[in-house]
Design brief:
By secondary structure, the protein is α+β, with helices and mostly antiparallel strands. It has two domains: about 80 residues, Rossmann fold; about 55 residues. It contains six helices and four strands; from the N terminus they run H-E-E-H-E-E-H-H-H-H.
């Protein structure tokens, strides 16, 4: 006969003891970000305490990369406030925030549209011009139909990854 002792899950204060610290490293209050008519982030509020480890998890296009870009100052918020170490940094340029982010690189040309990025990759692979004209079909395969005129910076990280896939 096998016996086992059942141990209940630890309470939240045991799982996250750092949550009781008074030092807030990053705070977002009602942050809003739009890309044209599309709302990427709608009144996001978040507090990250000093020493706390968090994960942003969600489907492609839900705003994870946009949120990080806002914290670092690589994108401007359309509303709300961003604080780092208690200082309001919403209007402060990235080089004065003393924060760093390492992103995955999908080797997209930032000055080209999605359509031109995909077309360039196809041209470099020697695909005939008639087939290059069907870039929208390649974008549809990776569920990006209608995104051809956007620049890479207007896409989520997951969408940029799919543009890179459309190149192949």
């Amino acid at each position: 006969m096998v016996s086992a002792e059942v141990t209940p899950f630890p309470q939240p204060d045991v799982l996250h003891p750092v949550a009781h610290k008074a030092n807030v490293a990053v705070q977002l209050d009602g942050v809003l970000k739009r890309f044209g008519d599309a709302i990427a982030l709608h009144k996001i509020s978040l507090t990250i305490e000093e020493g706390e480890f968090i994960t942003l998890l969600g489907p492609s296009g839900c705003g994870k990369t946009t949120l990080l870009n806002l914290m670092a100052g690589f994108a401007e918020a359309d509303g709300g406030e961003i604080f780092i170490d208690g200082d309001l940094v919403t209007e402060i340029p990235p080089y004065q925030r003393e924060i760093g982010i390492v992103f995955q690189n999908y080797a997209l040309f930032p000055h080209m549209t999605v359509e031109k990025n995909v077309g360039y990759g196809l041209r470099m692979r020697g695909v005939p011009k008639a087939e290059i004209a069907g870039v929208e079909q390649a974008l549809a395969l990776v569920k990006l139909a209608g995104y051809g005129q956007r620049k890479p910076r207007e896409l989520s990280g997951g969408q940029q990854q799919r543009v890179a896939l459309a190149l192949w």
